[in-house]
Design the sequence.
């Protein structure tokens, strides 16, 4: 069978309204005015123009989606793990997670005009802490000022139908295998309905495809991690050596490096040529630098019964509904040790039983006397620790604070 | 185009474009024989399409003949969708090309069609093809609007790969082009909004791209791949743009797209479906069909009731959008709101209807509400709204 092939050109009418070609399957959301959307305030630097572009698309995307979701449903919406951690993610990989209620939406924006397949970086599927419940393909069209949610998939679908591309380290899902009706995702009550299904599958790992072919991440010893960070962070004449670091290591190692917020941040800073080490000692002596302020740290004074007063560094934490102060200062019991102390921000309040403060080595190993647990309601928790110069430490609390991102503090 | 009056034609003929304006139906004898066989075995009424397409829809994924029947059936839906959309083009051209660009994606339509919740393959097909054509037109517009350098950012990896393959750039050479393209995208980006107007990279940009390429070549490409120069990067980029433009423009889309039948042809089974089917299967077929019809009537009642409960503004929104097929901009003007809020308002109204539908289906059908089910209910709702508000033609 043959067909005619007229010589005329197929130019689309220039006066056609922009929405004449909007399809009715996708949801369109208006991008906020670019100038006022706050991207310039996101003063983070990036090692390549591509990374900066990626960051801009992701920034538009989660801001717009968050505003929309807040309008549409009462569920709590927040970006994961915390807004300040996003540049270190976008530096190396595309995607942003919005926590919507207790569901994780992985937003995958591109500027591409074609939506034949949804390409999901492996990080968002196979790093356990990073995995999402839903993966959304989103076109960001800056020229016409909209974003378009053109399809989405569940984690199980990605694992079942996704075609893994080992060269690119992505799972690709054909457009025809995606779900399209975004109404379904935002339907009140749907979450409760689907939740029972997914939790019942999760309880049985043998039938859950997402755990059946899970990729396990490497346990990176400190020396190896430092080595890898140095390699991936290398910069000469303001130019990074590895423009695609995510493909430069075996995934098990790469995933482990990325999953550790402190290491990821360190790699990010090195790639920007920022020779910073987060030294608590220097913060106490000369003030808290800008990066650390970004993480929430401030210098404070400590009224102490044993001494007159003393400098400390401090940050606020929200655990559940209560706010606390985490403070670091030389231990009053032992001059050579540092004290990490957790106290309610307001006097008169107490720390509920079961709350804990825990310290780990930089490569997340526990050590002797590294934690303090409230066995009954109490007024403070603290851990004293002796550290070598330059040694790094990671803190955690249970319950996990809002906007928690693992960080490495150096002494 | 003449509508096919006869059911056996609807399932066994393909549309062929004769010159610019004329279309004729071409019969496929193989499909005709198959149809007679199914008729003999199943005894479907010849006055109704549904039992036939439902029969084949159960089998199309594994049975090429079933696929061809459905493809034949969907020709009209695709044609109307193409004709409706052709009014957005300057020259009244390439109705054939619009048609063919869409009909090659019949699989997409069949995959999306869920007979449990959707009533009518023809109207679902028209809805789905319309969206596919819009998608194609959007891409054409973008290709016209972009500089070559911006287009390299707007094309997807898959699109580029297809374009290169069509242009005869395959195998190791294609892998080199793709790597060069990845480097280009990571290193050359507009500083501000302006992909469409992105200007040509400078020689030092090309140097940086070539340097990255040569570094990654060792770990990514076969060892035989030579180092490349900055000039080659530029040449490859231009060749890629050319390949994409050729491939994506509807004028060229029809060049190798087969009209009827499966993409790529292939051999058909000599044993026709129907031969091996047990009586039990037939009975199940008939029972489920009756059940389905009953359910669809109920579904209709549920939705009519749910619409009656909407606010009057929401009802008129549905009327304007689905009934009068008004564009969102016009609706925005009528209702005095911003254009972009229409998409959101519609989504909100649809969500209310969907909620009613889900409650009903849970109570009646005892369906487990997983996202895939809700999704297909969503598209059947769309389909239902379209046929409900469609002006009688």
Sequence:
């Amino acid at each position: 069978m043959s067909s005619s092939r007229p010589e005329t050109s197929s130019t689309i009418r220039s006066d056609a309204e922009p929405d004449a070609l909007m399809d009715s399957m996708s949801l369109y959301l208006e991008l906020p005015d670019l100038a006022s959307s706050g991207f310039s305030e996101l003063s983070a630097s990036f090692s390549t123009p591509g990374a900066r572009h990626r960051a801009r698309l992701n920034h538009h995307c989660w801001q717009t989606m968050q505003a929309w979701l807040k309008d549409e449903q009462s569920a709590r919406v927040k970006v994961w793990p915390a807004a300040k951690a996003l540049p270190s993610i976008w530096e190396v990989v595309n995607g942003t997670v919005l926590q919507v209620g207790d569901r994780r939406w992985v937003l995958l924006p591109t500027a591409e005009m074609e939506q034949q397949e949804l390409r999901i970086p492996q990080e968002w599927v196979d790093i356990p802490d990073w995995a999402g419940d839903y993966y959304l393909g989103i076109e960001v069209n800056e020229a016409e000022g909209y974003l378009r949610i053109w399809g989405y998939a569940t984690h199980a679908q990605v694992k079942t139908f996704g075609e893994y591309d080992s060269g690119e380290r992505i799972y690709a899902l054909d457009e025809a295998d995606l779900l399209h009706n975004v109404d379904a995702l935002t339907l009140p009550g749907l979450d409760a309905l689907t939740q029972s299904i997914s939790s019942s599958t999760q309880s049985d790992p043998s039938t859950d495809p997402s755990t059946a072919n899970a990729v396990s991440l490497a346990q990176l010893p400190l020396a190896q991690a430092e080595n890898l960070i140095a390699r991936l962070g290398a910069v000469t004449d303001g130019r990074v050596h590895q423009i695609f670091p995510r493909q430069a290591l075996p995934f098990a190692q790469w995933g482990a490096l990325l999953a550790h917020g402190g290491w990821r941040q360190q790699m990010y800073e090195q790639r920007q040529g920022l020779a910073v080490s987060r030294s608590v000692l220097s913060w106490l002596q000369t003030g808290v630098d800008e990066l650390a302020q970004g993480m929430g740290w401030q210098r404070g004074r400590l009224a102490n019964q044993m001494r007159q007063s003393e400098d400390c560094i401090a940050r606020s934490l929200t655990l559940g509904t209560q706010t606390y102060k985490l403070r670091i200062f030389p231990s009053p019991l032992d001059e050579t040790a540092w004290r990490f102390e957790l106290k309610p921000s307001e006097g008169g309040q107490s720390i509920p039983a079961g709350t804990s403060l825990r310290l780990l080595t930089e490569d997340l190993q526990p050590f002797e006397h590294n934690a303090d647990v409230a066995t009954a309601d109490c007024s403070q928790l603290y851990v004293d620790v002796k550290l070598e110069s330059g040694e790094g430490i990671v803190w955690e609390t249970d319950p996990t604070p809002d906007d928690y991102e693992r960080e490495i503090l150096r002494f | 185009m003449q509508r096919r009056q006869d059911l056996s034609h609807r399932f066994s003929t393909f549309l062929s474009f004769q010159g610019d304006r004329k279309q004729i139906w071409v019969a496929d004898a193989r499909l005709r024989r198959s149809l007679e066989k199914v008729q003999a075995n199943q005894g479907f009424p010849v006055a109704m399409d549904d039992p036939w397409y439902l029969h084949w829809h159960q089998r199309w994924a594994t049975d090429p003949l079933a696929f061809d029947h459905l493809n034949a059936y969907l020709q009209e839906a695709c044609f109307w969708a193409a004709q409706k959309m052709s009014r957005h083009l300057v020259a009244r051209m390439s109705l054939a090309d619009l048609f063919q660009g869409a009909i090659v994606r019949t699989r997409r339509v069949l995959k999306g069609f869920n007979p449990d919740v959707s009533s009518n393959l023809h109207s679902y097909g028209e809805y789905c093809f319309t969206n596919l054509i819009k998608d194609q037109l959007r891409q054409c517009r973008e290709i016209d609007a972009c500089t070559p350098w911006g287009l390299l950012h707007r094309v997807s990896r898959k699109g580029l790969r297809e374009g290169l393959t069509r242009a005869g750039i395959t195998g190791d050479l294609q892998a080199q082009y793709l790597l060069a393209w990845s480097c280009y995208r990571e290193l050359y980006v507009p500083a501000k909004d302006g992909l469409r107007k992105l200007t040509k990279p400078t020689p030092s940009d090309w140097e940086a791209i070539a340097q990255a390429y040569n570094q990654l070549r060792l770990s990514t490409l076969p060892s035989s791949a030579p180092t490349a120069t900055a000039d080659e990067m530029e040449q490859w980029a231009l060749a890629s743009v050319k390949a994409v433009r050729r491939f994506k423009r509807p004028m060229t889309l029809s060049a190798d797209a087969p009209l009827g039948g499966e993409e790529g042809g292939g051999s058909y089974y000599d044993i026709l479906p129907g031969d091996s089917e047990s009586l039990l299967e037939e009975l199940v077929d008939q029972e489920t069909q009756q059940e389905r019809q009953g359910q669809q009537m109920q579904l209709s009642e549920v939705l009519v009731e749910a619409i009656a409960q909407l606010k009057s503004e929401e009802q008129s929104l549905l009327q304007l959008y689905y009934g009068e097929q008004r564009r969102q901009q016009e609706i925005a003007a009528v209702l005095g709101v911003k254009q972009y809020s229409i998409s959101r308002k519609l989504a909100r109204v649809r969500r209310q209807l969907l909620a009613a539908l889900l409650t009903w289906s849970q109570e009646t059908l005892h369906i487990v509400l997983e996202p895939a089910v809700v999704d297909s209910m969503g598209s059947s709702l769309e389909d239902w709204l379209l046929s409900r508000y469609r002006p009688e033609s």
About this structure: Residues 155-253 of chain B form one domain. Residues 251-284 of chain B have pLDDT under 50 and may be disordered.
